[in-house]
Design goal:
alpha+beta; N-terminal domain of MutM-like DNA repair proteins; Helicase, Ruva Protein, domain 3; five-stranded mixed sheet; 12 strands; 24% helix; 24% strand; binds zinc ion
Length: 284
C-alpha cells in the first residue's frame, strides 16, 4: 500500500512532468474510480500537485481540483517522452498502457497520465479548489511527524494509555501518515517494543519516536519510494525499494543491523509487526 512518503514522491515527480499542460481528454474506464462529472476538467491546465496525508491534490485552472486517493493498489503512471511511475509497485510500471487495471486516463499535451488500480479502492474526485481544505478527510487529518509537537503527542498517548503504541501511531487521528512500514521502522529507531502501552512512553521516548518517524520517512522519500526507478534495478531485475532504508520491515529471519540477532515477526493490533527483540524494549 502506498504510504505517505510514496505519495510525496509521486507529488514531486508529477510536479516535474505534468504541470502547465492542458488536459485534452479524460477517459473514465471504471465509474467507481471517478467521483463527479469528468467533463468539467477537460480543457483546464494543470497548475500543480499538493499533498495532504496520503491524499494527492491536482490543482487545475478554473478553480477546479482533483483529489486522488491511491488506497491499496493505486498507481499514477506518466507516459510522455519518458516514463515516470509511482505508487503500488507492480509490472504496470513498465507495461503497455492502458491495460485491464487502468481506471482513468488523462490525455495531456505532452503525454498521458494513467490512474491504475487493481483492487479499485482508490479514486479520483473532482471538487472546487476552495473546498479542498474543507474536505472531511483533509479537515480531520492530524499533524504529520514533521509538524507534530512531541508534547501534544505525549498528551494523546496518555488518552490512549492502555493501547499498544503501534496501534496508536497507526491511528491517523493521532499522527498522520504513519503506515505499517514506518511504524515498525520508527519503533525500531526509538528502541521501543511495539506492544508497549502508549501511556508508558515518557516525553523523551515520544520525542525519540517522532525523530525516528521523520528520519525513516525522509530516507524513503530520498530513495524515491516505490517508484519505477527503485522497482526496476539497473540490471533489469525487480528490486525491492524497502532494501534501501528498511531495518526491520519484512526482514524477519535476517540479522539485526545493530546487534546481529534475528529480526522476528509478531502480530500487534492485528498487523504483521517486525521487531528486534534485543534492541526494542517493552516500556513499563
Ligand atoms: Zn537488534
Amino acid at each position: 500500500m502506498p504510504e505517505l512518503p510514496e505519495v510525496e514522491t509521486i507529488k514531486r515527480g508529477l510536479n516535474n512532468f505534468c504541470v502547465h499542460q492542458k488536459i485534452k481528454k479524460v477517459m473514465v474506464l471504471c465509474d467507481k474510480s471517478f467521483v463527479g462529472p469528468c467533463e468539467v476538467v477537460k480543457g483546464h491546465e494543470i497548475v500543480g500537485f499538493r499533498r495532504y496525508g496520503k491524499a494527492l491534490i491536482v490543482d487545475l485552472s478554473g478553480a477546479v481540483s482533483l483529489m486522488i486517493h491511491l488506497r491499496m493498489t493505486g498507481q499514477l503512471i506518466w507516459d510522455g517522452t519518458e516514463r515516470y511511475a509511482a505508487g503500488h509497485p507492480s509490472d504496470n510500471f513498465t507495461a503497455e498502457l492502458p491495460n485491464k487495471q487502468t481506471r482513468v486516463v488523462f490525455e495531456l499535451e505532452n503525454g498521458t497520465l494513467y490512474f491504475n488500480d487493481q483492487r479499485k479502492f482508490g479514486f479520483v474526485k473532482v471538487l472546487p479548489t476552495e473546498e479542498v481544505l474543507k474536505d472531511k478527510f483533509i479537515a480531520s487529518l492530524a499533524p504529520e511527524p514533521w509538524q507534530t509537537k512531541p508534547e501534544d503527542l505525549y498528551e494523546k498517548f496518555q488518552r490512549r494509555k492502555n493501547s499498544p503504541i503501534k496501534a496508536v501511531i497507526l491511528d491517523q487521528k493521532v499522527i498522520a501518515g504513519i503506515g505499517n512500514i514506518y511504524a515498525d521502522e520508527a519503533l525500531f529507531y526509538a528502541g521501543i517494543d511495539p506492544r508497549t502501552r502508549a501511556g508508558n512512553l515518557s516525553l523523551k521516548d515520544t520525542k525519540k519516536l517522532v525523530e525516528g518517524a521523520c528520519k525513516v520517512m525522509s530516507a524513503s522519500i530520498d530513495s524515491g519510494g516505490s517508484t519505477m526507478a527503485t522497482y526496476v534495478k539497473a540490471d533489469g531485475t525487480k528490486g525491492d525499494y524497502l532494501e534501501l532504508f528498511a531495518k526491520v520491515f519484512r526482514r524477519e529471519g535476517q540479522p539485526c543491523t545493530k546487534c546481529g540477532r534475528e529480526i522476528q515477526k509478531i502480530r500487534v493490533a492485528g498487523r504483521g509487526t517486525h521487531i528486534c527483540p534485543h534492541c526494542q524494549k517493552e516500556l513499563v
